[in-house]
Design a protein that fits this description.
alpha/beta; TIM Barrel; CBS-domain; Alpha-Beta Plaits; 3 domains; eight-stranded mixed barrel; five-stranded mixed sheet; 22 helices; about 20% strand
């Protein structure tokens, strides 16, 4: 129960000193309207309350899509907890009035942030007051005064408190959406009717509860649950926010599964100081870029196939809608975006036929007195970030039978549209590009991927890298004596060993061609890379001996012609490895310089007894054996 007991009139059992509620505002102190029935006691409580904000960022780029407003100082106001405060408000019958004041207060503080009009404010509204008129009236008035649109606000609806039995939750949510507010289902997965609410509410966002995020990297059951939640959400055109992300392991698990946005201590703790908030979190972008570099990105191919349909603004009147359809004769649907450029869905020509083919239908729908808005006709459409793998986008599209395609976004902003034909072209182009670069024997990535790995490593001065170049020793004599088929087997053996180690230790590999291979290590100590390179070389030397006849294996050499045609002895197959380490904060270099340095190191490796040579970028001329 509350520490302070209120009577029905709103007065305190012991008096509070008067404290007018005048929150700090960008345009100067502005009195916040408080319903008279609340009285001085509630006014004093409200004056003590404040809001902290926590960023919600794009999981691919680190750009902030919005901030969640979180109530603070309830203990200072005399309550045991935030829940205790709202329970007391509800018990005293003042919850709608209090909620209206608080939401407006949060919006006013949000408005002081630079670029607030292009950001999104996530507000937690108590379900017990969400359908009450004072709540929306206070918020709408505040938004108008601050020059913000309703499209900038997302209401977080949670199952933690039930809706009043006298109200229809879906009707409340529909009314909010018709007013252009957006909806997020908060704490998804903790209640018993979450799927029903998800189905009926048609929210724009789904916030996955921290319970499913904590320890997900090592919990296969949680991964399965989250993957299915994300798949269902994406089919319905809903973006997924992972709440409470605190570690890199949780971040990468959420990204692998397909979450669109992340929120949690790993990004930033909630703060009451708005100056500490940022619109871009570079550390998140670096993490995501590292992941894309390891797994590859389809972004370029997707950008080439996107149909850049000019979207309609959510504020467009219906005459503008009909005019756009008249001018865009080749399209029977158009995307709709809000003031921040975020997609709201599609408006389809077929959904307007009831009016267009009626004698007076078009005039009725265009007459503002009848209250028809573009928001009445918006249809949901699957949405995918441009960094999403092409196969995942196709899966999202295929699961929604009624969809015209997929809306593509970047940093939550509308970029374009991918229809069925364009999606098939994306998949086809990706397969062709991979087939062109793939080595036909080992199926490993070829020179294009290798060039890209080196280029991105050189551009990333914040991380340490190591490059390893592997080259067989005495391969031609072996090939000449045992034939090309056995030579191909030796190449496949090394490819298998290299791939197996890459999967175990998380580095990238490529096949330059013939008996030359490449590996790129990120974030590993140079000596640790050296030990791994040595282990790979020794494993190949051990396993390839079985490819020789018993006499040759026992002798430890073969006799074959050298390049001048003379018969001479050649040792059994080994691998020379040139290792070039790039420390963090390395200076600028070119791919050509790196190729030259590796070629020099390869000469040193051939001359060393253990066939391995290592150097760093800044002292490449002082190469030394490992």
């Amino acid at each position: 129960m509350t520490m302070l007991q209120l009577d029905q009139a709103g007065s305190m059992a012991r008096p509070f000193p008067p404290s007018p509620l005048r929150p700090t505002h960008a345009k100067g102190p502005v009195p916040l309207a408080v319903p008279p029935r609340l009285g001085r006691a509630w006014l004093d409580i409200l004056s003590k309350l404040d809001f902290a904000f926590q960023p919600i960022v794009n999981i691919h780029t680190g750009y902030c899509g919005g901030y969640e407003a979180l109530l603070r100082n309830t203990t200072e106001a005399g309550f045991a907890s935030i829940g205790d405060f709202f329970d007391c408000c509800h018990a005293q019958g003042v919850l709608p009035a209090i909620e209206g004041v608080l939401l407006a207060k949060a919006a006013r503080k949000f408005a002081t942030m630079p670029g607030a009009a292009k950001l999104r404010l996530f507000l937690n509204a108590d379900n017990r007051a969400l359908g009450a008129l004072p709540v929306l009236q206070a918020l709408k008035t505040c938004l108008a005064e601050e020059g913000l649109s309703e499209t900038a606000v997302t209401f977080e609806v949670s199952e933690r408190h039930p809706f009043p039995l006298t109200l229809d939750p879906t009707q409340i949510i529909r009314e909010l959406k018709r007013d252009a507010f957006k909806i997020a289902i908060d704490d998804f997965g903790i209640g018993f009717s979450g799927l029903q609410l998800l189905y009926l509410a048609e929210p724009e966002y789904l916030k996955i509860d921290r319970f499913f995020i904590a320890g997900i990297a090592t919990d296969a059951k949680k991964k399965l649950f989250l993957a299915n939640m994300v798949n269902v959400a994406h089919v319905l055109g809903i973006e997924v926010i992972a709440e409470g992300v605190e570690t890199e392991q949780e971040f990468f698990s959420c990204k692998d599964i397909g979450c669109d946005l992340v929120q949690g201590y790993m990004i930033q703790h909630p703060t009451q100081e708005t100056a500490q908030l940022r619109t871009h979190y570079p550390d998140i972008e670096k993490l995501s870029r590292r992941e894309r570099r390891q797994k590859g990105s389809d972004q370029k191919i997707i950008f080439e196939q996107i149909e850049r349909l000019e979207p309609l603004a959510a504020t467009s009147d219906m005459r503008t809608v009909f005019a756009r359809f008249r001018d865009a004769k080749n399209h029977n649907f158009l995307p709709v975006v809000d003031n921040a450029g975020e997609p709201m869905g599609l408006i389809r020509e077929r959904d307007l036929k009831e009016f267009t083919y009626s004698t007076y239908g078009k005039e009725i729908i265009c007459n503002k007195n009848f209250g028809y808005k573009i928001t009445h006709f918006i249809a949901r459409c699957p949405i995918a970030d441009v960094h999403t793998p092409a196969e995942k986008i196709l899966e999202i599209f295929s699961a929604n039978a009624s969809s015209e395609g997929v809306i593509i976004v970047e940093n939550l902003k509308y970029v374009g549209f991918l229809g069925a034909h364009a999606l098939l072209k994306v998949i086809n182009e990706k397969n062709l590009a991979f087939a062109r670069d793939q080595n036909p024997l080992t199926k490993l990535p070829g020179n294009s991927v290798i060039h890209g790995l080196v280029t991105e490593a050189l551009a990333d001065a914040d991380s340490a890298y190591s490059f390893a170049y592997f080259d067989f020793d005495n391969f031609k004599p072996f090939n000449d004596k045992y034939g090309f088929r056995q030579g191909d087997r030796a190449i496949l053996l090394f490819a298998e060993i290299l791939t197996r180690e890459a999967q175990s230790h998380g580095f990238a590999v490529g096949h330059v061609g013939g008996d030359d291979f490449f590996a790129c290590f990120k974030g590993m100590d140079g000596d640790a890379v050296g030990a791994l390179v040595r282990a790979i070389s020794l494993q190949f030397r051990y396993e390839v001996e079985s490819f020789y006849d018993a006499p040759d294996r026992a002798a430890g050499f073969i006799e074959a012609h050298d390049r001048e045609g003379n018969i001479r002895r050649f040792p059994l197959l080994t691998v020379s490895a040139a290792q070039l380490d790039l420390p963090s904060a390395h200076g600028p270099s070119t791919v050509e310089e790196i190729s030259w340095l590796i070629a020099e190191l390869k000469k040193g490796a051939k001359a060393n007894p253990d066939k391995i040579c290592q150097a760093t970028l800044i002292t490449a001329c002082d190469s030394r054996p490992i």
